[in-house]
């Protein structure tokens, strides 16, 4: 059955499946665009989201530097950011995207809204990962006279496997968001699926696009699981 399906795909000469000009000429570029916008957005999200998540933990009631005002402000910002659907956020900040990137079309322009939309989500994941650290280890570090910075370092180190898992979830979420970005000119596989698979009824383009996205997600999950196990020394 599998051999028959493979033969059908590779030997088709009627302009469909792998003979489809869209597949032959645009699939690779669209895949690269999806990877670029997802991983660059993930990089900036991690860069901002980890300090933000740690700040929420540190300023909480039982944190290293309790501060109810700052904690409430950060929590409100994160909650508001998480409550806005990505597609609406992307449209709402188009003027800001044009100001920063110079355009609102293409995968480069999609990086900004992807990052803005993912930071609150990832900050909450980091907060959950750090809160899950055994408090006994933190108290033992405090008893040894460690500074706040050193205690924070211990917290991050202990939470590292969970943070790696959070980054994996983040990247997979961004791949999903990037497909939505394609609906309004963000490029990538999402744009290919919508422009050809949906609007021009090219079922082959839609199927192959979905298969590639599924494969990318599987690979990201496998790599994330592997790195998480490598950094887990508990």
Q: Quick recap of the structure?
A:
The chain has 234 residues and is mostly helical.
Please describe the topology of this protein.
Blueprint: H1 2-11, H2 21-58, H3 68-83, H4 86-92, H5 94-101, H6 107-131, H7 135-143, H8 148-181, H9 188-198, H10 203-231
Helix content: over 70%
Sheet with the most strands, sense and barrel status: none
In DSSP terms (H or I, runs of 4 or more residues), the helix count works out at 10
Structural class category: mainly alpha
Average pLDDT level:
90
What is the assembly state of the chains in this entry?
single chain
Q: Determine Rg (CA atoms, Å).
A: 22 Å
Helices and strands, in N-to-C order?
HHHHHHHHHH
Strand content: under 5%
N- to C-terminal distance: 46 Å
Q: Which parts are unreliable, with pLDDT below 50 for 5 consecutive residues or more?
A: none
What is the approximate shape?
A: elongated
Give the strand tally.
0
Description:
- The N and C termini lie far apart (46 Å).
- Helix 6 (107-131) crosses helix 8 (148-181).
- The mean pLDDT is 90.
- The longest helix is centred in the first third of the chain and has 38 residues, at 21-58.
- The chain is mostly helical and 234 residues long.
- The chain is elongated.
- It has helices at residues 2-11, 21-58, 68-83, 86-92, 94-101, 107-131, 135-143, 148-181, 188-198, 203-231.
Keywords for this entry:
234 residues, mainly alpha, 10 helices, 80% helix, elongated
């Amino acid at each position: 059955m599998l051999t028959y399906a493979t033969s059908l795909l590779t030997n088709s000469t009627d302009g469909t499946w792998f003979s489809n000009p869209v597949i032959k000429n645009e699939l690779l570029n669209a895949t690269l665009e999806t990877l670029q916008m997802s991983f660059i957005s993930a990089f900036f999200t991690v860069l901002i989201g980890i300090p933000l998540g740690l700040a929420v933990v540190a300023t909480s009631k039982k944190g290293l530097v309790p501060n109810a005002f700052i904690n409430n402000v950060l929590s409100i910002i994160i909650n508001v950011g998480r409550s806005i659907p990505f597609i609406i956020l992307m449209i709402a900040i188009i003027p800001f995207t044009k100001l920063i990137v110079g355009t609102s079309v293409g995968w480069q322009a999609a990086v900004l809204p992807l990052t803005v939309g993912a930071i609150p989500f990832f900050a909450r994941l980091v907060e959950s990962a750090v809160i899950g650290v055994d408090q006994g280890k933190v108290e033992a570090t405090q008893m040894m006279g460690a500074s706040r910075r050193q205690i924070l370092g211990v917290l991050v180190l202990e939470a590292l496997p969970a943070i790696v898992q959070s980054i994996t979830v983040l990247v997979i979420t961004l791949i999903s968001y990037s497909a939505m970005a394609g609906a309004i000119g963000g490029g990538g596989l999402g744009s290919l699926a919508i422009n050809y698979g949906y609007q021009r009824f090219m079922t082959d383009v839609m199927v192959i696009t979905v298969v590639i996205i599924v494969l990318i997600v599987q690979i990201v999950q496998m790599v994330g699981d592997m790195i998480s196990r490598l950094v887990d020394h508990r």
